Amino acid sequence: MRIWSVHPKYLDSKGLVALWREALLAKNVLEGKTKGYKNHPQLIRFKMSEDPLRDINNYLAAVMEEAHKRGYRFDPVKITVNSAVNIIKVTSGQMDYERAHLLEKLKKRDPVRYTQFFGIDKFDTHPVFRVVEGEIESWEVVSK
């Protein structure tokens, strides 16, 4: 499961669809509707927020918005959008790590998109996140 901190606009089509599915799974976990993934590291920041369900729904809303811009039809019935947005902190180190991780994926899966974004030093965050200085998040499973 990967719940990206980077804005979904950087994801290729496979990544965007996977993010939608994985964030829906995360929502089910937070709602107590599944037995698996309860302790998945990617969920920690949502579990620590003041309203995890609101925040995962708002996260999904932004993913759906990006999908609609691309002509995809993600089902809006699966989420509940709340106008109150809580900002979750993400570290600059985490953003740098995710940028590099995503670029490696794009290099293999979508070379055109890779070329489009390779020159960008800092990726925008997903709208529910704001960057603070710091190292890679402690919950991140760093691939070598």
Structural features, described:
- A two-stranded parallel ribbon has the order 1-2.
- It has one domain (8-132).
- Helix content is 46%, strand content 6%.
- The protein is mostly helical and 144 residues long.
- It has helices at 13-30, 44-47, 52-69, 92-109, 111-118; strands at 88-91, 129-132.
- The mean pLDDT is 93.
Given the helix and strand composition, which structural class is it? Answer: mainly alpha
* Count of folded domains: 1
Could you tell me the radius of gyration in angstroms?
A: 15 Å
Poorly predicted runs are: none
Task: State the shape.
Answer: globular
- Number of E-type strands: 2
End-to-end span in angstroms?
A: 17 Å
Provide mean pLDDT, rounded. 93
Give the amount of beta strand, in percent. Answer: 5-15%
Main beta-sheet annotation: 2 strands, parallel
Brief overview:
With 144 residues, this protein is mainly alpha-helical. The protein is built from five helices and two strands.
Keywords:
5 helices; two-stranded parallel ribbon; 2 strands; mainly alpha; 144 residues
